[in-house]
Sequence to fold (433 residues):
Amino acid sequence: MNKTTVLSMLMCCMLSTFAFANPQLLDKVAVVVDQGVILESEIDALVNTVKRNAIQNNQSLPSDQALRTQAIERLIVTNLQMQMAQRMGIQVSDPQLEQTIDNIAKQNNVSVDTLREELQKTGISFDEYRENLREELITGEVTRANVRRRIYISQDEVNNLISLLEEQGAEQAEYHLGHILIGFPPSPTDDDIESAKSRAEKVLELLNNGSDFKKIAIASSSGAKALEGGDMGWLNINAMPTLFAEVVQGKEKGELIGPLRSGAGFHILKIKDLRGVQNAKVEEVNARHILIKPSVILSEERARKMLQDIKQQVLDGEADFAALAKEHSEDPGSATRGGELGWNDPNIYVPAFKEALASLEPGEYADPFRTVHGWHLVQLLERRVSDATDKLKEDKAYQLLWNRKYAEETDAWIREMRDAAYIEVLAPTNDAD
Fold:
């Protein structure tokens, strides 16, 4: 065949392919969120995850329409947080992510390979799990960075809570709460408030008549834990929002409370369980560390290797840890003290740092590890169990107040961020039916 014949045949094949090929829609933009978008596939993936978890927990669910609405709201908030993280320069590197996954596996007494296999059994790919975890770490850091500067605790508040704790004694009641929020818009009108109140009363009536709390929370709640069925977990009476603390005391397991009005809407609570014993002692750790932050000119591997070399020099007696901390550590709060962090409750540290300390005996060094702050070389100096001294009581009171205000301010910050954003839902809500 000559060249002309060959070219003619190729053109015929191409025209035939174009004539019979039908265009297929692989994905589409469902929501515009400021400078970002939410894809239809993201909504479907989150809805499927909630359904999968519900099946595993033998939990009934509301309609697909209600699930879709809640999924969109969750994804809007996450998308806004990820955009903010990009502006703030907050990232989670692959080494840090791998370290976090390794820690999760250790906490569950399994290997990473076993964790991968268990995820596959539940229909979750390991790549999907990794990226969801990366996103969770980033949004958590964004939230902490924005919320903690909104919190102010006065000494009078601390002293008043110390007095209350002393009156109540060493044993503190804890409540496992379910929460449903029937929200109203910013600057609500009287009609908005009355409508929300009416819906809240209807929800309470359904619950009193035996309706499933989790199902209604997923379908109707505007709260941050809606997709978890409104489960707020265990809360100490002094760590929960003030509005809740004032009404749960004296209530029995299974009781419903509400509607309670706040600036966000009307709240309905369920006392899912109670427990009353709280240990008055606390374990504290005294540690020191050297922090190295990777940069454009210092790679992740070089930062890790630098700390590994420092560790070996110290172990060989060739260098002094405190001197090297003063010279190299990029933690301004501890570097001038030779890296010493002082006595602290280990819960104040980020998870990877806390877990590293938990694995050490006094005097031991951890291998270099990564957190959101950079690479660390840590030595545990001492460990102790403290009684409820005046200092401990003050620290405890401050931490309880912090937890309470952090929860309240997190909800407020998320609402403000959401209300200030440009949101446009492009896909009709009945597409998911």
Q: What stands out?
A: The radius of gyration is 27 Å. The longest helix spans residues 390-420. Residues 311 and 344 are 23 Å apart (CA to CA). DSSP finds 15 helices and eleven strands in the chain.
